[in-house]
Amino acid sequence: MTYLITKVKVSNGIPLVVKDSICTKGILTTAGSKILKGFVPTYDATAVRLAKKAGCKVVGKATQDEFGFGTFSTNCAFGVPKNPHDLSRSCGGSSGGVAGYVAASKSDVFGLGESTGGSISCPASFCGVVGLTPTYGLVSRYGLIDYASSLDRIGPITQTVEDAAWLLSKIARYDKQDSTSIKKSAEDYTLYCGKSIKGLKIGVPKEYMDLATKNVRDTVTLAINQLEKLGAKIVPISLKYTDLALPAYYIIALSEASTNLAKFCGMRYGLQDKLDGNFNTYFSKVRSEGFGEEAKRRILLGTFARMAGFQDKYYIKALKIRTLVIEDFQKTFKKVDVIAAPTMPIVAPKFSEIEKLSPLDQYKIDVLTVPVSLAGLPQLSVPAGFVGKMPVGLHLIANYLDEGKIIQVGDAFEQS
Amino acid sequence: MSKVKIGLEIHAQLNTNSKLFCGCKTKSATPNTATCEVCLGMPGSKPVLNKKALDFAVMLSLALNCKVAKASRFDRKTYFYPDLPKNYQITQYHSPIAEDGHVFVQSKKIKIRRIQLEEDPGSITYPQHIDISNYALVDYNRSGYPLCEIVTDPDFSSSKEVKQFLKLIVSIVKHLKVYTSDRSFRVDTNVSIGRNPRVEIKNVGSIKDVVSAIEYEVFRQKQEIENGQRIKQETRRFNGSATVSMRGKETEEEYGYIIDPDLPVIVISDAQLKKIVKAMPELPSQRMQRMMQQYKINKHQAIAIVSEKELADFYEKVAKDTDAQLAASWISTQLLKVLNYNNLFFSETDLDVQHFVPFLNLIRKSKISDRAADLLLRELVLKPQHPGTLADKLKLLTLTDAKLLELTVSVLKKHKKQTEQYKRGDSKIIAFLIGQVIKESKGRADAKKVKQEIVKYLA
Amino acid sequence: MKVDRQLVKKVAAIARINLTESELAKFTDDFKDILQDFSVLSKIDTDKVVPTFCSADLQNVYRQDRVDKCLIRQKALVNTKHKENGFFKGPKTV
Description:
The complex is a heterotrimer.
Chain A: E1 4-7, E2 14-19, H1 46-53, E3 56-62, H2 96-104, E4 110-115, H3 121-127, E5 130-133, E6 153-158, H4 161-171, E7 201-205, H5 206-211, H6 214-229, E8 233-237, H7 242-260, H8 279-290, H9 293-305, H10 312-332, E9 338-342, H11 351-355, H12 359-364, H13 370-375, E10 379-387, E11 390-398, H14 403-415
Chain B: E1 4-13, E2 49-50, H1 51-63, E3 67-68, E4 71-72, E5 75-78, E6 88-91, E7 98-105, E8 108-119, E9 123-125, E10 135-139, E11 146-152, H2 159-175, E12 185-193, E13 199-204, H3 207-226, E14 235-238, E15 243-245, E16 258-259, E17 266-267, H4 270-279, H5 284-295, H6 299-306, H7 309-321, H8 324-341, H9 353-364, H10 370-382, H11 387-393, H12 401-414, H13 416-423, H14 430-441, H15 447-458
Parallel strand pairs in B: 13-14
Antiparallel strand pairs in B: 1-11, 1-12, 3-7, 4-17, 5-6, 5-16, 7-8, 8-11, 9-10, 12-13, 14-15
Helix pairs in contact in B: 2-3, 5-6, 6-8, 7-8, 8-10, 9-10, 12-14, 12-15, 14-15
Chain C: H1 5-14, H2 21-38, E1 62-63, H3 73-76, E2 83-84, E3 87-91
Antiparallel strand pairs in C: 2-3
């Protein structure tokens, strides 16, 4: 089963599988792309270093959508992972390799995934495992190969909420090597497990429920009812900028990504060609050879959106929409402690179905995770049930640095 | 003839210990030994801003009378080149550190459009001549060095103004202790004539070369216009004697600037500004005021002296040991004249206090006439040595009293007619006699003294 | 602004990506499709809205001007086969 690009033999320690876009010292790191063929970092990402300090051992580097570009882990240069619940279906993406491995594993294993637009939540939901995406800035991005610098986050993908809480406690540290790292004292998030959620206000956004398919919506509704039975107060809410969040997200993410990927040109690492022709010829040749189709499409869109003549209409506009989306959430958190919704509008699709989707159709599958991603809010996806044999994820979203609340709710739900 | 317009973009390396966004040292000779994941742009690396570089940029902005931005940000300028590890340069485009400044160059106001912080790329060399090499060799030691870019309005109309401006900028930068070395200054120059398109001359590394490049380019453009040819908007480089079209830079790059999401906004409060102002070393303008007061010299003298930091330092050392006003007079006029004539900056000479103080003392003690001192100075600047010895060798010292008397008597005897005229009461004729003595002395006689001798002798 | 092959070709050149004929055709269709959908953003007035560049509320993040250990040259060059005498080799610039 292809979940790993690189396997590492370890004898003891807590097994940790790491998404391939997270740098691991001495271990091949490709971010799922041919253009990073052969790249062996000389350093560990901070999150990896901290996980190792806590006793974890890296057992493998997981396959993924190239640089995080995808929702189904089908844009992988080194193997497409198959959903352990149904091998004809996707693991979700882009951290599909991590989620698939964690779900398929018969023994305890921890995973480190990465999310830009929902790439921890989505595969967690599709594979029936737990995915925790911390507040932007809580876990250092140093050593994470960038997709979109203002959106990328590293987070745990695990078999239980408590496991996710444990791993987060170990990797959430201020890092002076990352200018976007938040100065916050270390916290033991496992203390939020086993607590009652009585009296907690949980908002359910109408727009999110409406965007899900009926089966998914029904399953999530049952889960939310369960939360109510556990003592939480359910509050209907509205997040009015939901429809604008998706284009705004993609424009910002792709604009940033097109600059982040400029460094890959066959010179200092990765895929290299014979040095022939002038620099433009050489760079173009290597880049065209090394990037997959989706990567090329996103680089082109991102380059376009920030061009001098189009910037105001796209890049700057999207940044303003982001402000509105954030304000929308802030207003909501004055009324509720946590937001609950389906993680994804669908269950994991078949590979044959994915092939029929246009790029835009694929982007739109992210509709429920991108608003949260734009805002950088902490989110937790927990298994909520099944449609047939396919898992459905319940998404719990809290305000900045309120990981504790979603862990509390998630754990209570999981234990019930 | 249509108006010549020149604008400058000066890139000055800042004198920090470490690079702009990482802790690599800023001094290293062996290629690629002062690099790390950050300045190599390795996947996953992230930048962190060097505070000292920011402080230097703010100080420079204040020194150039700019408005320091309350909130400033970094941008990514994306383009592809082998010396650029990330294929984008972290610079400031949307919200630079400072804008809207000015300096005066000989009472002409030169507007400073903006000041921005940015990182230097690496350096490219070739195994053989650029035209026959198949590949380039890149050293990333310089990658990530902190640069301060100063952009002026196209307010200059001559290379002379540019030279004085650049001298002033260097003086300011040296006074602020922000300057690294003579190799740390690169200038892009924009030259246009009348309504013709402007031509950019890129990457000129010294003030003298900038002056030469401008002079050549203005001449070239004027020739083209006179020949009825159109000036092409393009980028050129200076090869030491002429500006040459740059191949491979025909298409205009589309940089697609975005705010760098890796670097949070820089907010500078009024309190922080006050703190920086307090800690700033003395600026040339402040030094000028202080020197005027301390040494009782006039404004023109002071301005001339602070135009070069080393010259100002030299003056203050000299002024301690001799007549401060005399020193100011000679340094701000004759010394600068000799330097300009030889196309030298003071810092390029070996002239020191030990040469100049005795030189001034010769003048003070009337051991040498002003005219002779002028000649002596021209030699001293090029070959600094003990002035007394040199003056003696060149026969520039004023004659001793005995020698003077001897010469006066001989001249009076020679010009009996005029001597008799004086004796008969024609006082005006003494001017002729004085002139003759000075002529005979070959400048070694002081006019006042000669007059005294004549009057005494003929009394 | 016309979203057509010429535009996509121009963007590809800026991004240093060579496109085959079929890629050019496909991406042009994608561009049209996606940008048409994204034009919904223009429908909302954001004149008085300030852009958010980063969701974390951070400012003035610095490091002190201290020299840290650099990579030894061997490590800096370890991931490239294009190297010579301690230099990185790259394509020529003319």
